[in-house]
Prior knowledge:
This protein is an alpha+beta fold. It contains four helices and four strands.
Amino acid sequence: MCGLNGRLECNFICLFFHLHPLLLITMADMRTNYTKDIINLLQDTYKDKLHIFESIVPLSVRASEISAEGKSIYAHAPTGKVALAYTNVVTEVLCI
């Protein structure tokens, strides 16, 4: 997780898939240069050490709403940018 002055900018999810470390960037507010800089820094620093998913899950109000409703993003907003991003992540995982 990273932030500036207490503001949540993005989350980084580290997964271990068959003992191969993976990094999924989630809740990324791509409107800010700070988030873009952090993503570039992660990619430059860790590209040889772990697999970084090309898909980046963006920040979304709809995604925040589903936690309170207890629904899947696919049930709540199946055509939204977050659902599309997670679908792309699944495709990437299947190709690893």
